[in-house]
Amino acid sequence: MENSRIWFDGKITDYDDVKVPLLTHSLQYGSGIFEGIRAYDAGGRAAVFRLDEHVDRFMRSARIYRMPLSSTRDEIRQGIIDVVRENNYKSCYIRPFAFFNDDRISLQTKGKKVSVAVVGVPYNNYFGDASNKGVTCKVAGWRRINSDILPIQAKASGNYLNSVAAIGEADAAGFDEAILLSRNGYIAEGPGENIFLVKDGKLATPGLESDILFGITRFSLIELAGKMGIEVTERQIHRDELYTCDEAFFCGTAAEVTPIVNVDGIPVGDGKPGQITDKIGKKFIGVVSGREKEFLHWLTFVK
After folding, report:
1. For all residues of the chain together, what is the average pLDDT?
2. Would 300 be classed as within a structural domain?
3. Which residues are CB-contacts of 154 (< 8 A; sequence separation ≥ 6)?
4. By C-alpha distance, which of 247, 153, 243 is closest to 204?
5. CB neighbour list of residue 113: distance below 8 Å, 6 or more residues apart
6. Overall average pLDDT of the 41-56 stretch
7. Other CB atoms closer than 10 Å to residue 69's CB: what's the count?
């Protein structure tokens, strides 16, 4: 992050110049909200994938947690573009983040200052080499949080302690990633990804009733699959379907389309990335790289 330029409370500044008190409310209690956004090199220009959808979800998260943002939607949107431009990024991961910038010891948030930051970092693959060869997964003992506990449609920092616990369990057991179940025992999602299963050439993915975050990459892939003539069903998915499906994959801003090749020590299909997963993954990369003209409206080019 050295020499990186960020957007903080409405102004472009140096990353190293921003100071936040150690006792900041959102650091102590996990009360921040955030987004994960990608910009891709599309013919030599940076193209931000589904920028407006991400900014809209950011604003919804703030509303759910009663955060009076110090910047408007349009200012935050422009701040994201400015960060990409200021750093001359062609490809990067972008993190808008809002937090209660107040170090008074209290759970109360009323009257506390809210700061908004946008940070961009060069980025490649979330799972490294495994992004292509496929990841191994463990079904977590921890269940996915649900709306009886916390607002699951808000991308809030504290929500992801659930994910941190699941990842730690999977890592300790020698797996690359975790899969969380809903409170009713159906497949929900990965710690930071949505999940799809392939059976007999058709896709299935958990729906809202399984306590998932409605991922932007997820609904993009549902639309893409439909255009490709691949049937998609949103439904409750039993855990044992992980062991009997032909293919499975994660999707998300960081994960993009990542094959799942083993769950709980049982190979998924033949234990290799599947053909449909590969086909959808290549289609997605074509879209975000600006090669699919039909989907150029999903990209915001930074001039």
Report:
1. 96
2. no
3. 33, 60, 61, 64, 65
4. 247
5. 70, 100, 101, 102
6. 97
7. 17
Residues 99 and 155 in one domain: no
Give 115's contacts (C-beta < 8 A, 6+ positions apart).
8, 9, 20, 70, 98, 99, 101
pLDDT for the residue 126: 87
Question: Active-site positions?
Answer: 155
Q: Are residues 184 and 273 both part of a single domain?
A: yes
d(CA 40, CA 161): 29
Q: Hey, what are 264's tokens?
A: 């709980």
Same structural domain, 198 and 223: yes
Does one domain contain both 179 and 269?
Answer: yes
Question: CA 114, 79, 123, 55 torsion: positive or negative?
Answer: positive
β partners of residue 96: 118
Question: DSSP for the chain?
Answer: -TT-EEEETTEEEEGGG----TT-HHHHH---EE--EEEEEETTEEEEETHHHHHHHHHHHHHHTT---SS-HHHHHHHHHHHHHHTT-SSEEEEEEEEE---SS-S--TT--EEEEEEEE----TTTTHHHH-EEEEEEEEEPP-TTTS-TTS-BGGGGHHHHHHHHHHHHTT-SEEEEEPTTSBEEE-SS-EEEEEETTEEEE--GGGT----HHHHHHHHHHHHTT--EEE---BTTHHHH-SEEEEEETTTEEEEEEEETTEESTTSS--HHHHHHHHHHHHHHTT--GGGGGGEEEE-
pLDDT at 129: 74
Q: Quick one: CA dihedral 212, 216, 217, 219, positive or negative? A: positive
Q: Are residues 109 and 219 in the same domain?
A: no
Q: What is the pTM of this model?
A: 0.96
With 80 as the cut, is the pLDDT of residue 130 above it?
no
- How does pLDDT run across 79-116, given as a tens digit for each residue? 999 999 999 999 999 999 999 999 999 999 999 999 99
Domain span holding position 74: 5-121
